Amino acid sequence: MYMFWIMLVFLVVYFIRVILGPSIWDRLLGMNLIASKIILIIAVCASIFDLAYLLDVAIVSALLGFIGVIFTALFLVDRIKGGAE
Fold this sequence. Notes:
Helix 1 (2-20) packs antiparallel against helix 2. The protein has helices spanning 2-20, 24-49, 53-81. The termini are far apart. Helices cover 87% and strands 0% of the residues.
């Protein structure tokens, strides 16, 4: 159960990184870390409460987080380069 609280503390630290990040890439990294910790929290809850279906939820969340980070990074790169050429 202590692991759950430690992960919540890390979530708060990463959230502060998202808010105060000096660049947009640091904020994107912070959002990726938050998504990873949420997946880990779901997996720990699945283990503690013996609920196997939560692992499916964690896998779907991981896939959506990965796709979201990729599209956000592509959008930012396009925006930095000046849009359509």
